[in-house]
Amino acid sequence: MAKNVTQNGWTVINGLDLDSSPVPSTSIIPVPGLRKGDVAKVLLEVGRQFNATVAPLYNPGCWGYAPAIPIPGSTILSNHGSGTAIDFNAPSFPWKKRTMTDAQRQACRQIVENLSPVVAWGGDWTTVDEMHFEIRGNADEVKQVANKIIGVTMPTDKQIDETISTLHQDAYGKSPSDAVFDDWRKVLKNNYVEGNISILKGIDNDPNALKNKSVSGAVYEEVTVYRKVK
Ligand SMILES: [Zn+2]
Question: Quick check: 1 and 31 in contact, CB under 8 A?
Answer without folding.
Answer: no
